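Pipeline run #58 for the internal structure catalog. This entry was flagged by the ingest filter as a single-chain record with no existing model, so it goes straight to prediction. Upstream metadata was stripped on purpose; only the residue string is passed forward. Reviewer on rotation: M.T. Logging verbosity set to normal.
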Amino acid sequence: LYWIPVESLLQNIGISVLMRSMFKVICDFTGVLQFRHPNELGGMLWTVNTAVAHVVSITAAYVYIGNNETTPEFESFLKTA
């Protein structure tokens, strides 16, 4: 499971799920390249996670522009990005 030695199987599973969830959240918000290791997130999950993060951020910017009045400088910045 994971490296923290505990006595019961239930504690092992709980700690393993907690640690994997923490790594997933950290990778969601930072994109740490070291988490591509197979024992952490793995290459495919890390790649999909990074692609989803890009799509969500671009979508959020377009929703923000569509729902609010923005300055021309901000709109021109988004068009060039």
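catalog note: The mean pLDDT is 77.
catalog note: The CA atoms of residues 74 and 81 lie 11 Å apart.
status: ready for reviewer M.T.
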